Amino acid sequence: MSEAHETHENGVYDLIVLGAGPVGQNVADRARAAGLSVAVVERELVGGECSYWACVPSKALLRPVIAASEARRVDGARQAVTGPLDAEAVFARRDRYVTEWDDSGQALWVKGIGADLYRGHGRIDGPRTVTVTRDDGGRQTLTARHAVALATGSKPVLPDVPGIEEARPWTNRHGTDSSAVPARLAVVGGGGVGVEMATLWQGLGSHVTLLARRALLPRMEPFAGELVAQGLTEAGADVRTGVRVTAVRRPDPAGPVTLTLDDGGELEADEALFATGRRPATDDLGLDTVGLTPGAWLDVDTTGLVQGVDGDWLYALGDINHRALLTHQGKYQARTAGDAIAARAAGRPLDDGPWGDHATTADQHAVPQVFFTDPEAAAVGLSAEQAEAAGHRVRTVDLDMNAAQGANLFADGYPGHARLVIDSDRDVLLGATFVGPGVGDLLHSATIAVVGEVPIKRLRHAVASFPTVSEIWVFLVAAARGAGH
């Protein structure tokens, strides 16, 4: 141990991690558990985008909105919901969950696992070398014996339209760290961030206009976006699809913003939030020093190892490899990569075949995702369209969620729909989509069925508790088998 301590003082580690969000923390934790020495470099807050501007604050803000809506769906409870949400209390709740944007607790966690934390901007400076530049301009060079793991996440993309910079639009960060409710909010983008932000701010009292070039949630089954659009409309939002913003102007920095639309119309709002995509945060990481293109998504193998770099030492995990821009999927990749780094360091063979310990097979076959809208939208695996495009012979099973009595007891007039996508040749589940209040908690059972390739015949023996929303599984499996429930 004393020798390891001396090498730390000289800036030499087994693994250097750039980015201390959940992904970076997970790969560091896994490597430390295997006995490797680890340095973690972070230029902003330890905990990253997820902890302070994305998953955690957005869900802390959305939960009161959804809770109030769910109460209004239950006779007897709806009579108790007599006024609007207390926005100040909602913001205070958010502030508690982001610890007032104080990362000292997470910094202590990094140190608590035995990793060394370096605050500053980390940049690759040739093979296995990282230079850290602190805010005060000081620099330190670190060297990795075995690996460097990049976990720097992604950044929002604004469309290239006239006036966009001068208009100072909101992005996801403004959407989750703001503490004032605009009277009118334009949300541009119909993906997950767009629909969640529209749900949130409409619930807090804004009049939201949601503008989307395509249907909402275009990567999910079509009914998911349709039901979410219906829920937003019923909540009072103005949902417009098939529309594109061609220009933005805000002549008075303190005044309203005007969006010009491709149909020739205009929309005026007090703020405009753009949720129009993400780009990798790889533009200033020194990728050019190892033959890669700055600002590019990084191509990786199933262990997270970056392709096109000699020596098998550079890993890219989470958003920057573009496999699935979801925190839980990035953490899964990080756990896998941490184990692979430890195995390579010890000279052990890799278990990197399908569903092996060192393979991120779920990135291709079983990615779960939940959007905390009203109603919620949750899916795992392939949609019917994706499955057919991949060459599978498929059949689908569709049911309204209120086929289960538990759903009706959960919410009067429960709004929702479910679909299973089944491989006709193997009779196993390829994908599942649920839309309805609280369906996010149904998703893990579907994920297990997809990952485990559980035969539909066997699923009939997975007995759902009565009366719960999960009873929908009984009806779905029965329909899949052409039998009564």
TrEMBL record:
Comment on bound cofactor: Binds 1 FAD per subunit.
Domain FAD/NAD(P)-binding span(s) in chain numbering: 13-328
Full protein name: Oxidoreductase
Keyword Oxidoreductase tagged: no
Domain of life: Bacteria
Disulphides: C50-C55
SUPFAM superfamilies xrefs: FAD/NAD(P)-binding domain, FAD/NAD-linked reductases, dimerisation (C-terminal) domain
MF annotations from Gene Ontology: dihydrolipoyl dehydrogenase (NADH) activity; flavin adenine dinucleotide binding
Residue intervals of the Pyridine nucleotide-disulphide oxidoreductase dimerisation domain: 367-473
